[in-house]
Amino acid sequence: MDEFFKKIPFLDNVLKGIGQIMLQENRWTGLLFLIGIFMGSWQCGVAVLLSTAAGTFTAMKLKYNQSEINAGLYGFSAALVGVALAFLFETTILIWILILLGGALAAVIQNFFIQKKIPVFTFPFIIITWILVFALHHFTHIPPSAMLSAEVIPSKYDDFLTCTNGFGEVIFQGGVLSGMIFFLAVFISSPIAALYGLAASILGAGLSQLNGEPIKEIHMGLFGFNAVLSAIVFAGVKKRDGLWVLIAVFLTIVIDDLLIDNHCLDAVGGVFTFPFVAGTWITLLIQKIFLKAKA
């Protein structure tokens, strides 16, 4: 099967770009993510493919570093732009155009930060999507997608499924099976990252419940997905890695709950993965200060 992907390197790069949504340079992770997304919504699935392809193609045409392209680094923010727009809005022609343009722009912004050696994570996706959501809400009459109003039916397994639902919500998927598939997709690439992510999702749900957040949204994984990403960044086999995971996850959860409770980013569509980026940046800064002091 590896020979097949060697013959179609563009497809390989696109799948790795989708896998990099959860920091996994793994084509099979990307393929499972794609399957999980299509299970939730064909529009989101097509949007992810188009936006990731647009980001990867842009990087190739602008002759960015080939090893970075091969690793999927120009696909993940682009992928999230695509799935966010398809999830939030009815997919009109304008939305499909913006999915392509947003994917291409995400690659350009990603490259800028890579050149500056700044660990930007999903920040290009956040900035582009905030701007597009604000503009679409204020200057167009495109209705929201049906997915936004879909009724979530409670079940007796909600407490148990909350942990994997956190994985699903990273890519805007509320389906139980999608969350399980996403967890499995990370696990086949990095078991330690998947397990830390699972623990982070549980911690995010638990702390948010103590903070009085709506139980329905907690069960959906909406208070766990940012914590999942923060845990994956610092996941490792050393004992100190566990400490950094705990710090990053705690900061991310605090930022997430604070922003949501104060409705700080409602005008631009919501927090998206900003709590993850902010919590991770702060943790990296603390880590840097600690290492300097130790030296």
Element string (H = helix, E = strand): HHHHHHHHHHHHHHH
Shape: globular
Number of domains as seen in the coordinates: 2
Q: What is the average of the pLDDT values?
A: 95
Which homologous superfamily in CATH is the superfamily of the largest domain? Ammonium transporter AmtB like domains
Tell me the helix content. Answer: over 70%
Instruction: Give the class-level CATH name of the largest domain.
Output: Mainly Alpha
Assign the structural class, choosing from mainly alpha, mainly beta, alpha/beta, alpha+beta, or little secondary structure.
Answer: mainly alpha
Give the number of DSSP strands: 0
User: N- to C-terminal separation?
Assistant: 47 Å
Number of DSSP helices?
15
Q: What does the radius of gyration come to?
A: 18 Å
Q: Approximately how much beta-strand content do the residues carry?
A: under 5%
Major sheet description? none
In the predicted model, the low-confidence regions spanning at least 5 consecutive residues are none
What is the correct CATH architecture of the largest domain? Orthogonal Bundle
Protein name: Urea transporter
Family: Belongs to the urea transporter family.
Subcellular location: Cell membrane
Keywords: Cell membrane, Membrane, Transmembrane, Transmembrane helix
